[in-house]
């Protein structure tokens, strides 16, 4: 095959050229690493009593550590691309930026350009139609420090020359490679529609929608890495990535570290607010409760429940009586109502407001004591004057002066009572605090949530609420804590004590179609910058968010300021697999166009199982699927209730443990399959999946779109 031989010898020459370039890059990485380690050691040894100096030192340590982390990723394909401009200029593109020091003049030239830098943009964005000044784009395949292949695309319409190694693109290789059960970064093959989203300068809310396998998750994760490098302050404030469950987080967990970003916090919406409940104390919620307790109206009901405990009119009718010294001081209801208004107007969380209320009440008591004292003195004056028929001050002055002393006036006598000391006594002591507790009590989030759920269960409080929902809410008010309680507890926590201490500079929300409005509030509470990448597919909504639109999902305020991008090309599945999913999509989201697959593959298989022996048929189909994808990963997707039998028959674990690494067969309940992918998929009992949950059709759509290579559907007849 002369053509192949020509490519091989051409490739060998080019591989050698690139190997030399890559060798120099690694030398630079090694030298930079040694230098930075020494600097970091020095910075860590620096000690000072001056806080400014120490802050500067901490900032420097952070900077050096980040750079060292980035250099540490050099082991994963340090350089993966090269662009040759029409004018002959060459740039290598890779995981990080490296500079070469040139000669004696101290100048530098780029040895490698960070993929996130503007200069690297043409590597991703150039097409034959818009070559952006490039003649050629080259992909390098590397294994550790060794360059193993190069592939070129000539972009300017010229014929490939002797130095161009044209062949199957690396995208094809990436898409057809066997899955490992862990998502890989795709920094070398990001497509231009994806790259445009990754480097969007929009700092507000960016919504990325698209069908299954269009790369929403990879785009979101690469954007997290981009934002960390490109947006000021984000690296210091941190990035939070939210995914639907632990299994999914495990699946995506390696992507950001391999891009040199180790400081990103991965969590689920439930775990994010789990701090409000003791670990493991919240069980899963029933879907009706999850849905109704996830409604944004609950925020208003919670706020009302808190306000109802802030000196309500009904509790003020008796006023307040406290003992100060030997005397009783009485505050009238209207005085307390005034204190309440000022405390509420301070706009603080409940406990902050309580402190203001306490101060207001203390002030009112000091006033009352002063008025009381003045009235007592005046009464005594009047009585003495009435008895003696003479002015008391004159008597006192005469008497005192005869002793060589100055007389005290009535108000001087009051000053002796010292209102500041009295105020301090009142605020520091337990007496007033106890008295105030009955009007404006300290509250626990759990009390607020129970009260709010009870209120929400009353007719008319939640617009459009059904009898079933009200019954579920009433049970939840008194019942054990579930995952549906957690966002409510988080909201109550904010109403009582203000926002959570840990916030982030940017938040990525994946599978966002699963996030309830109340969970959204918990997310936004942790993202004061409102800089978010929101990724999802409404057609894949779960039971708690079915039928909602993006405006409902992210809330009207955020939606108004959001930019929306749609991905249309499915990179995961073949055209044949998408065809099987198409009728289901037409039923669940008739307006949503199906994605276009980049590849063709085998026709999906259909098998039937007799009722009562689903497991036997699945075992047979799994064996066939394993033969389809030697060394690959086979996913068996089934309704949660079918898991037990299948687990026994297949001898694998399907529960929520994420499956052991190295398993070739993974049994996954459809409720946890969102976002995952496998080389071959066996969908067990599609009718059973549809019947199992209110979102059963959507679950089936998810299940049918998880395979990269082959799909088998086992129907029960
Ligand atoms: N540019 C790319 N280069 C290589 N692989 C890619 C690229 N884009 C997407 N892929 C691969 O396609 C698959 C699907 O991507 P991803 O999981 O991000 O899709 P998704 O839109 O989030 O899917 P879902 O809706 O099912 O969650 C993944 O294996 C991903 O690595």
UniProtKB/TrEMBL annotation:
It comes from the Bacteria. PROSITE patterns: UVRD_HELICASE_ATP_BIND. The keyword Lipid biosynthesis does not apply. This is UvrD-like helicase ATP-binding domain-containing protein. Residues 189-574 form the UvrD-like helicase ATP-binding domain. ATP binds at residues 210-217. The keyword ATP-binding applies. Keywords: ATP-binding, Helicase, Hydrolase, Nucleotide-binding. It holds the Pfam family UvrD_C_2. InterPro entries: DNA_helicase_UvrD/REP, P-loop_NTPase, UvrD-like_ATP-bd, UvrD-like_helicase_C.
